[in-house]
Fold this protein.
Amino acid sequence: MRRLLLRLSLLLIPLLLLASVAGYQLLGAPLAPPQAVSYRLQPGSSLSRVAEELEGAGVVRSALALKLLAKLAGQGGLVQSGTYRFSEPAPPGRILARLVAGDVEKVSLTIPEGFTLQQVIDRLAELGYGNRDRLRQLANDPEFVRQLGIEAPNLEGYLFPETYLFSPGISEAAVLKMLVMQFHLRVDQALLARAKTQQLNLHQLVTLASIIEKETSLVEEMPLIAAVFHNRLRRNIPLQTDPTVIYGLAAFDGNLTRKHLETPAPYNTYLVRGLPPGPIANPGLAALRAAAEPARSDYLYFVARGDGSHQFSVSLQEHNQAVRRFQLKRR
């Protein structure tokens, strides 16, 4: 009997060792795919289908092993959709953990300060982050805009300039919502309170900030540009800013003419006093802060020096001298 037990033991030990090695190979040994794999997990996909597709792509050795781990952990229905990238060696447990955590591949998108709504839509469409017509329709849909907490006819001015990370395949509605949510996060109650002291509501704040953004790229100049506009608004002097006129043109070839300035239009601030109907671009935080907290100054005029900066003046006489010095001389 003892001999029989000894013989069985001698037979079982190698079998157990083989089973342990096989189990480790299936469940514990890291596996690197033959090349980097970009895998799109579709919404509603079953774990069984996902496991088989990952086995076919060389991400896991055995679909059965992945399904077994998921069943033991009670995570079979918890995998999240999105695009995953697999390139490093990983055991099936690590693969499952990534699928459950939604550790999807992220793409980067940068919206520069001063981009118009149309420029944002064009960039999104060109980079493959949405259909241009669908993006335009949503951005101009009053109901969709209202759902995002914006009291305006469209999303012009409310798509916050920032660098964003998101998953490929994101819907047009979701990407626009992401940009607007960032706007709400950055335009906080403290900023709105400062704007209120300048007699600006949210829409007026964004409108003025968008003009400041288009007038200068120098952050240190923005409070002075804001002071000029606030002084003009208080004295009921037309803002007389070229970017608003350009924004209101159906087509602009880069040459702003006297005819443009003399043609009545809602965005022609040479003829219409006060702020234009709405934002002319999407301003960054520096421009928004400048609009809400302008510099203390009596300036009423400014002219470009030609180096990116501006010359500021209190009187029309000083301004005309600056124009002759910095503009007419250059021509």
